[in-house]
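dude i think i finally got it to work??
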Amino acid sequence: MTPDRGREFAAHGDVSKALKHVSFFFADPYSPWQRGTNENTNGLLRECVPKSVDISTIPDAVIQQFVDSLNRRPRKCLGWLSPYEVFFDSLLHLT
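look at this
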């Protein structure tokens, strides 16, 4: 997992343990290229939710729709498969 360097990840050891020892990688300060997928996803999020909008005011159902659309979006880094297809090892029939 490659999170931001924010204080909200201070307990990353506890999270890692709870997730069965998922490793955390913290990028160097001021090095966004070390977190490419994270930065790209942040950009996609901002298409739906501008920085000026408080994300806590958006209904969970709307957030879930956005997450579902991202997980079904083909990614170059995944050989043009979607995260859903890779995770579930199942091709989607999009046409």
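The mean pLDDT is 85.
im so relieved honestly
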